[in-house]
Design a protein that fits this description.
Shape: globular
Largest sheet: 6 strands, mixed
């Protein structure tokens, strides 16, 4: 069945399904430096990192889940906590796309192609084993771990980049796994509720209006043609209880006859665990859910992107025997994209970041580099972002400042 979308939010079209020009040129020239990086994919083998790539807040938030989660038994792989972090012995490479985020601006400037190209360049940086030493030394190159898994931290990259990254990944022989938050949530829902599941997606007006789910729908429908879903933007409220009621009210108003199996939560930092606990508490102490009982399946649940991507990553590392099996707590290393100096002074803000008028208007497939990947330092991001990271990702932030 075809997905439907909440009428309360504007959607953009899905766009051209073919690979962007940058990818076509990259794969056509097997003598290029970028193609050489594709050949190096998976060079570090099981000692490679799990790389998380995207905006700083989303990447740190997702890294927190990777570093702290204990959802599985590390020996049997069953879904039972065993007191040991699921990614024990692994290195999480947190790569914050400081130079090019936030991504919503590319949609506003109708420059989705540059956003897709940026995502592919993130893949190339992830598989590489070199980067710049820091944001001030543009010449010194240092060693970094190459990736064995690339996790996209933003749903924008699920829609505007995942298809093209997969195309490039195929050329590398699929030597690293690429995980998308949007597609992982649907995979998780299908695994837990079947491929005929009835779903709702909980997201923001910004994400829905940017066409994220319209653009991602073709790959979802290709894999799960019988899954039916509504993309909804619940009312803003300080109360989780009120927001849960809002999402159920919107689903009922959509006129769906199928009972709702799961809500996929695409709004950082909302946690499916907290939402499921709040839902249970509502059932026990309030009558507010009685009107919605007829539209909920017996096994209804919330599923969030963080839990979905870590679950998919664990499954891949187990089945491909890619765990390091080191006896150690998960570690993290930190990198970020940084604007290159030397362009017109009109292109930069006072803090060295790109002005929106330059950032979102850059031409795709240009031979001029505008940013680099470097080891991340405390001065790489604004204080407001650091404050958010400290609040929603305390363990990851602690590892970051200790480096």
């Amino acid at each position: 069945m075809s997905p439907t979308f909440a009428a309360s939010c504007v959607n953009r079209g899905a766009g051209d399904p073919l690979s962007i020009r940058f990818v076509q040129d990259l794969l056509a020239d097997t003598t290029s430096a970028d193609y050489a990086r594709i050949r190096k994919a998976g060079a570090d083998g099981i000692n490679g990192s799990v790389t998380i790539f995207g905006p700083a807040e989303e990447s740190f938030f997702l890294a927190e889940k990777f570093i702290t989660c204990d959802d599985f038994d590390n020996v049997t792989g069953s879904r039972n906590p065993d007191g040991l972090p699921d990614f024990a012995g692994e290195t999480i490479s947190v790569t914050s796309d400081v130079a090019n985020s936030p991504y919503s601006g590319y949609i506003g400037y109708s420059n989705e192609e540059f956003l897709k190209e940026n995502a592919v360049r993130g893949f190339l940086d992830a598989v590489d084993t070199l980067c710049r030493a820091n944001q001030y030394d543009k010449e010194t190159v240092i060693r970094k771990p190459g990736s064995k898994v690339l996790v996209l931290s933003s749903s924008y990259l699920s829609a505007y980049g995942y298809y093209d990254i997969r195309t490039v990944s195929e050329a590398s022989g699929h030597r690293i796994k690429v995980i998308s938050p949007v597609h992982s949530m649907f995979d998780s829902a299908a695994e837990r509720h079947g491929e005929n599941a009835s779903l709702a997606v909980w997201t923001t007006p910004e994400v829905l209006g940017a066409g994220v789910y319209a653009s991602a729908s073709s790959l979802i429908a290709e894999k799960y043609p019988s899954i039916d879903y509504e993309v909804l933007c619940p009312d803003k409220s300080d109360s989780l209880e009120e927001r849960i009621i809002s999402i159920l009210r919107l689903y009922r108003a959509s006129g769906k006859n199928e009972k709702l199996d799961a809500v996929l939560v695409d709004e950082m930092p909302l946690s499916a665990t907290l939402l499921n606990q709040t839902m249970k508490r509502l059932e026990e102490v309030s009558d507010s859910l009685l009107a919605y009982k007829p539209i909920l399946s017996e096994n209804f649940e919330f599923i969030d992107a963080a839990g979905a991507v870590t679950g998919e990553c664990i499954k891949y590392l187990r089945t491909s025997n890619q765990f390091t099996h080191r006896v150690a707590y998960p570690d993290a290393v930190f990198y970020c994209t940084i604007p290159l100096p030397g362009m017109s002074t009109d292109d930069y803000n006072e803090d060295g970041t790109f002005k929106d008028s330059f950032k979102y208007n850059r031409a795709p497939s240009s031979e001029t580099d505008t940013y680099i990947l470097a080891k991340m330092e405390s001065r790489s991001v604004r204080d407001s972002i650091l404050h958010t990271m400290r609040r929603i990702s305390p363990k990851t932030f602690e590892l970051y400042v200790s480096k």
